[in-house]
Amino acid sequence: MSSATMSLPSPSEIKEKLQTLYTQEQIDEQVSRVAKEILNDYKDTDGLFAVPVLKGAFMFAADLLKKLDSITIETEFIRVSSYGTSTKSSGSITAHNITLPDLTDKDVLIIEDIVDTGRTADWLLKFFTNMCGARSVKLASLFDKPCRRLENLKEIKPDYSCFEVDDKFIIGYGLDYQQQFRQLPYIAYVDNL
Ligand code: PRP
Asked: How remote is the CA of residue 53 from the centroid of ligand 1, in Å?
């Protein structure tokens, strides 16, 4: 554990400070809206390839994909990380054992929980565009936090996004604090973290 991590509040202290940002109903409404946009855009596609990015996107991806049941989708999970147990991005992306099939003639839809500095999204978009030979690559994200985008990544923008948020520390519905709280069915925030 780094000294930076040691100075952070413990998960039990955080638990006391949780405030609801979005309820389950509000999340469902936005996931349904995004699902409709995706269904409309991909209605003529025969090769949609969904890539939920673990760990944070697992809950959003599950709910989103259930609402896309009328189209044919191949799904493969990948895991990348940049934050570890810290609240600040380490600045480097770690990809964990990515193995993918041939994506020629596939339309890739990356499913993320949040685009923050934009580093992970930039890495993923470049990886699928340059390395995997996909026909198209788009990004769906539960959250977009444009105020945190790095100066050189301002052009990074999810094609589909449920919520745009300001610089709050948010957890729940897949997003963690020190690997905890991912199971919350709602989105919470903590002031002054
Ligand atoms: C989070 C999140 C995104 C990324 C966004 O991942 O899931 O992948 O950070 O941040 P960025 O825009 O600054 O790159 P994290 O490293 O916390 O891993 P996790 O999904 O396993 O929690």
From this structure: 9
Helix axes 58-66, 24-41, angle to 10 degrees: 60
Per-residue pLDDT tens for 92-151?
A: 888 887 788 889 889 999 999 999 999 999 999 999 998 888 999 999 999 999 999 999
Q: 73 alpha carbon to ligand 1 midpoint, in Å?
A: 24
**Where does residue 35 rank: exposed (0-12), middle (13-18), buried (19+ CB within 10 A)?**
buried
Give strand pairing partners of 139.
Answer: 110
CB contact at 8 A, 193 and 9 = yes
Mutate to test the pocket of ligand 1, among 120, 161, 165, 167 (most ligand atoms within 8 A of CB): 120
Lining ligand 1 with CB less than 6 A are: 53, 55-56, 81-83, 89, 112-121, 176
- Rounded to an integer, the average pLDDT of 44-70 is 95
Is residue 44 within 8 Å of residue 69, measured between CB atoms?
A: no
Tell me the pLDDT tens digit for each residue of 100-112.
888 988 999 999 9
Catalytic site residues? 116
Please state the atom number of ligand 1 nearest to the C-alpha of residue 56.
Answer: 20
